């Protein structure tokens, strides 16, 4: 008797696993655009369940499943359709290094007319772009926190575009000025993150939007999972990216009637400058130690601050040097007939977002602490306290009371 429904049971389990797994994957891949697909998946799961209840012969069910798997895999394979890049102009900020530099080169090789902004026109990044790219690429010097420079870039871009609109605006420029516990982060660091990542991006977007609307084009913004989740030591950077996420999410539905599509790219950790620049972090560290109020430094301890810096340096050293997942997402957001609202670029993000979305804070906080910076030291003042508690534990009760009164 057991053998009779052993095989069907396993098939059933496999089918349900595939369907539930598929639905889960869709949710993780896109929080916002998963609605209709999710309903379809749930419907299909219920359907399979019903078929099962009618006791289909196992053979027939197998054939049905094979057919479905075939149709599913056919609909999945093959390159996704994409629009041509030729004749499309793209403006991308922050191309001195990192994602911006890599994306400018790739977009140029695909045939886009690229307008790439850099901070330093005579720097290594700019020279490399000039050397490696076609004559279609235009370099512009723009500090996105300077409104006159952004305006000048608009005039230069318009002069070159003529009557043509701008197909793509890629908001890539961003900074992570420093990192550390929020209490140990200088106000100037909070401000500089906001100034570049948020106000700078808003200013560029507002300035170039008329050209993008004219082309019924795309806006692609590089943000960070740190704008969605409370990574330890990234309060300044994360808060600026959270503001940016809300801004782009609002733009997404406001610009829908204009035919402008808006995507956000969320990269995992990559080896971008200056995050991998050892000298830069040493300087920031020294400056921080000099700027912190002595009482605060006393409470946390210099060793605590130093550990954070060392942990981050080693984290940055082991980050991914291959930017292609991010660059590919930018291309998809620019050329897919139906771009996604969000692209998760890089391994490990699905798990992080899954835990963040579905688990209680006690678990998701611990997970973020373990996967990012695994601190071993407590702040000095807390170490002292727990040291005292140990001492107290060894003494007898009367002594304890005396000591507590001294405290
Ligand atoms: C730009 O880069 C060049 C060459 O690396 C360097 O000499 C110059 O100081 C840089 N300028 C600025 C403003 O950083
Ligand atoms: C690293 O940072 C220092 C200090 O900010 C800077 O002078 C240097 O040019 C940077 N090096 C690289 C390779 O970017």
UniProtKB/TrEMBL annotation:
**What species does this protein belong to?**
Fundulus heteroclitus (Killifish)
SUPFAM superfamilies listed in its UniProt record: NAD(P)-binding Rossmann-fold domains
Q: Which InterPro entries match?
A: NAD(P)-bd_dom_sf, Sc_DH/Rdtase_CS, SDR_fam
From the UniProt record, give one GO term of the biological process aspect.
multicellular organismal response to stress
TM region(s), chain numbering:
7-24, 51-72
Does the record bear S-adenosyl-L-methionine in its keywords? Answer: no
- Molecular-function annotations in GO: 11-beta-hydroxysteroid dehydrogenase (NAD+) activity
Q: Which CDD domains match?
A: type2_17beta_HSD-like_SDR_c
- Which branch of life, at top level? Eukaryota
Which reaction is this enzyme known to catalyze?
A: 11beta,17beta-dihydroxyandrost-4-ene-3-one + NAD(+) = 17beta-hydroxyandrost-4-ene-3,11-dione + NADH + H(+); corticosterone + NAD(+) = 11-dehydrocorticosterone + NADH + H(+); an 11beta-hydroxysteroid + NAD(+) = an 11-oxosteroid + NADH + H(+); 11beta-hydroxyandrost-4-ene-3,17-dione + NAD(+) = androst-4-ene-3,11,17-trione + NADH + H(+)
Q: What protein name applies here?
A: 11-beta-hydroxysteroid dehydrogenase type 2
Alphabetized, the UniProt keywords read: Lipid metabolism, Membrane, Oxidoreductase, Steroid metabolism, Transmembrane, Transmembrane helix
In the record, the note on similarity to other proteins reads: Belongs to the short-chain dehydrogenases/reductases (SDR) family.
The protein's annotated pathway:
Steroid metabolism
